[in-house]
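Anyone up for a design puzzle?
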């Protein structure tokens, strides 16, 4: 029988109460420590399970490829997207190396990049063709080395973004962008054709009067020529003096001579008017492209406004204020297009009102030349003032405008290094202001 140690026995051979209390306290403390450790262990285990579920949900949900590999390239885990791409269930990937899903040079390129990333302990990026049941698909892989506590490479994590679908999307986007540009170009052409139509209407109206005048005078000239031919035929036939005097009175040749001069002068005036119109038209279309040159901004506005007025069905008053000549640098043909559009917009805005008037004010400010155009129409509401230069914005009825006129005009002036803006602090009517580089030596 084991003997009780004497140092824990009392004088009567009984256990010392104090010693037993120490033993019991030690047992209680040990048990409490075990319980606490068990609770911590269960907490850590729950956290680990939650982390595994979280990682599992990530691997199952991410659209990009994610592959965890060992140092030798063996796959230890992979996302559902990668499994779907290669056509294998997750359980069937065990024992497979990542290199098996690449062919030839693609395999060598990927494995070389992975080895370098692990050895250098630096991330790397490589593009390789992944072999899938549907064919070879380009994938951009980002390789991140896996390191242990001693920062020794033990593997890598590959995150891949499939490029095939992305490139197809970019191709479709580029095609859509190309179609949009073509549509915009077509709309711009339509706007130019609309402006050309208004211009041709003005040209036809303006040419009609002098041509009709020339036609009427040539008809008179033809009548007078017939009378003189009749008279000279009788002269050649040897008619007597009395007969010729009577014939002259009958044909009213004295009056015909006076009228003949008037008809010639009228025909000449009509022809000169046609010549002037053609000259204005030539100046309107001149210098539409090419190098910038110095031109008279006031004369440019006068020509443009006159063409719009010619095509307008209502009377339009034009006022010019400031210097008679204001020189600017630009392409006159382009600036005339801008001014014609501004004048036409003003005419449209003033439709139906009495005494429609447009006032031009030109001058210099420092190294710039400016031209203001103001009408006495209803003006532009403050709520749309910030959007009038936006493409396709228009206040006109459907079919009456494309909403590109001001946008195109704004771009043309910007390409000249100038500005086209809505005037501020205008109480009535609408006012636009063009600034260009000064074209004189001032």
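Challenge accepted. My sequence:
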């Amino acid at each position: 029988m084991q003997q009780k140690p004497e140092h824990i026995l009392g004088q009567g051979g009984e256990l010392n109460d104090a010693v037993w209390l120490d033993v019991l306290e030690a047992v209680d403390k040990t048990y409490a420590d075990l319980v606490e450790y068990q609770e911590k262990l269960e907490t850590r285990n729950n956290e680990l399970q939650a982390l595994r579920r979280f990682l599992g949900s990530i691997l199952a949900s991410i659209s990009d490829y994610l592959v965890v590999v060992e140092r030798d390239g063996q796959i230890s885990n992979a996302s559902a997207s990668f499994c779907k791409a290669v056509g294998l269930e997750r359980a069937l990937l065990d024992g497979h190396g990542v290199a098996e899903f690449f062919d030839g040079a693609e395999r060598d390129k990927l494995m070389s990049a992975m080895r370098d990333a692990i050895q250098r302990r630096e991330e790397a990026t490589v593009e390789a063709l992944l072999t899938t049941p549907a064919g070879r698909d380009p994938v951009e892989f980002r390789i991140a080395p896996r390191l242990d506590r001693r920062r020794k490479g033990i593997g890598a994590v590959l995150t891949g973004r499939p490029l095939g679908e992305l490139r197809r999307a970019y191709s479709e986007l580029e095609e859509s962008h190309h179609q949009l540009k073509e549509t915009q170009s077509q709309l711009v052409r339509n706007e130019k054709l609309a402006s050309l139509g208004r211009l041709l209407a003005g040209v036809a109206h303006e040419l009609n009067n002098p041509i009709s005048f020339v036609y009427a005078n040539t008809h008179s000239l033809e009548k007078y020529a017939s009378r003189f031919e009749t008279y000279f035929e009788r002269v050649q036939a040897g008619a007597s003096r009395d007969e010729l005097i009577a014939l002259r009175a009958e044909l009213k040749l004295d009056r015909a001579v006076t009228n003949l001069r008037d008809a010639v002068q009228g025909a000449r005036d009509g022809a000169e008017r046609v010549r002037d119109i053609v000259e204005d038209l030539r100046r309107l279309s001149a210098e539409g492209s090419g190098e910038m040159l110095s031109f008279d901004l006031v004369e440019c506005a006068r020509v443009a406004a006159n063409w719009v007025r010619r095509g307008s069905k209502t009377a339009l008053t034009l006022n010019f204020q400031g210097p008679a000549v204001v020189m600017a640098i630009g392409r006159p043909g382009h600036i005339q297009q801008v001014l014609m559009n501004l004048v036409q917009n003003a005419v449209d805005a003033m439709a139906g009102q009495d005494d429609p008037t447009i006032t031009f004010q030109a001058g210099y400010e420092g190294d710039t030349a400016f031209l203001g155009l103001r009408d006495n129409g209803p003006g532009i509401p403050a709520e749309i003032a910030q959007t009038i230069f936006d493409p396709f914005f228009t206040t006109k009825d459907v079919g009456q405008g494309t909403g590109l006129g001001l946008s195109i005009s704004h771009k043309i002036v910007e390409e000249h290094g100038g500005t086209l803006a809505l005037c501020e602090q205008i109480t009535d009517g609408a006012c636009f202001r063009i600034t260009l580089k000064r074209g004189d030596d001032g």
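A detail worth pointing out: The longest strand covers residues 135-147.
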